[in-house]
Each structure stands twice: as C-alpha cells, then as structure tokens.
Amino acid sequence: MLSEKMKTELNEQVNREMYSAYLYMAMSVNSETLGLKGFANWFMAQYHEEMFHAMKIYEYILRQGGEVHLKAIEEPPRDFASPLDMFEKTLKHEQFVTRSINNLMDTAISEKDHATQIFLQWFVTEQVEEEENDNEIIAQLKRIEGHPHGLMMIDRDLAQRAVTVPLDFSRGVAAQAKAASGN
Ligand code: FEO
Hints:
The protein is mainly alpha-helical. It has a single domain, classed as Ferritin, core subunit, four-helix bundle (Ferritin). 74% of the residues lie in helices and 0% in strands. It has helices at 4-33, 37-63, 83-110, 114-143, 148-158, 173-181.
C-alpha cells in the first residue's frame, strides 16, 4: 500500500521519465539533422530506456493498488549548439533526475515504506550508471574538439549501442524485462 504522498511523488516521477524520453528523442532528431546517425541511434536507445523507467514506475503504482495520473509532458528544447552541448545537457538532466530519485527515496524512508525503498534501489544504481556514461562521452567529445575525424569516430562508436530494455509493455513490464534478459 502506498501513502498519498508516495503515490503523488511516484506519479510525478513517471512524468519526469516520460519527459526524459521526449528530451532524448529531441536530441535524436537533432543528431539526424546534423547527419550524425550514431548519435541519433544512441539518443533513441536512451529514449527507449526512459520509457522503460516510466513504465516500471507505472506498473509499480498499479501493483500497489494506486492510481496512475498521466499529466502533460513539457515540450523539449529543439536547438542544440553541438554534440557536446547535447551531452552536457544530458548530464545536467540526469543529475536532476538523480536528485528526484533521492527525494523519492527520502520520502519512502520517512513514510516507513520498505517496499518502495527496495523498488527505488534499482533506480539509484541506474542513475550512477547513466551519469558515468554521460561523463565518459563528454570527456571523449572534449578530447576531439575541433577534429571532425574524431567526431566521426565517436559517431561510429555510438552507432553500436543496442537497445537492451523491453519495447512492448502490453503484457506487463516485469514479464517483458525477464523475457528480454533471457532469465
Ligand atoms: Fe530515467 Fe535517465 O533516468
């Protein structure tokens, strides 16, 4: 059972994750217009990750007998100065998401909601990985600044990223995640 406060905050997080998906979709479109197919692939994979995050929380609220309230999703920015600008904005956004996950965990602790604390642990770990990935790519982009050949090499690397999360949530997130991981 979720408290009203916990339910409200989890619903707000569904919206933040949906916005994250929308933001990375905007960056994928921007990469396409720059002819950077690898960057476009990386950001579209990130879009799928964020939809998975949103659906994980959506399903958790429902499993706990709560109501999901879908709210309007804010329009993402359209223009980015450079690939480095996109990744710096990605990192900044992920740091914001990390703070919001930490706030959710603080609420779960203060509400003595042990199930939600365990549920949120996955997101705490995920945020460490997301910030780490962004920092690595930012460092690479800074190293090759002003060298178009370097940018092409990073684009080739980012083209390798595969989507590892489930894409079809019609039969539930947990079941699909299990099927996707082969366990
Ligand atoms: Fe769902 Fe990128 O945090």
